[in-house]
């Protein structure tokens, strides 16, 4: 995560449902010194556009 320009203290929005990989993702975010911010996975694209800017103070959002 630090390889894509994130620095300690940056917020990372996690948009996942109840998956087995969720704890691993959160652990990786926290271990990198980042802040995990959960985002409701059933947001519509329009709702998602506004979420990171308001609660995460994120400059960009990536869906993978």
Mind sketching the topology for me?
Elements: E1 11-14, H1 22-31, E2 35-38, H2 45-56
Parallel strand pairs: 1-2
Helix content: 25-40%
- The separation of the N and C termini measures 14 Å
* Largest beta-sheet details: 2 strands, parallel
**Pattern of helices and strands:** EHEH
Number of H/I helices: 2
Description of the molecule:
By secondary structure, this protein is α+β, with helices and mostly antiparallel strands. It has one domain (2-56). The chain is built from 2 helices and 2 strands. It has helices at 22-31, 45-56; strands at 11-14, 35-38. The protein has a two-stranded parallel ribbon with strand order 1-2. Strand 1, helix 1 (22-31) and strand 2 (35-38) form a beta-alpha-beta unit. The longest helix has 12 residues, at 45-56. The two termini are 14 Å apart. 5% of the residues are buried.
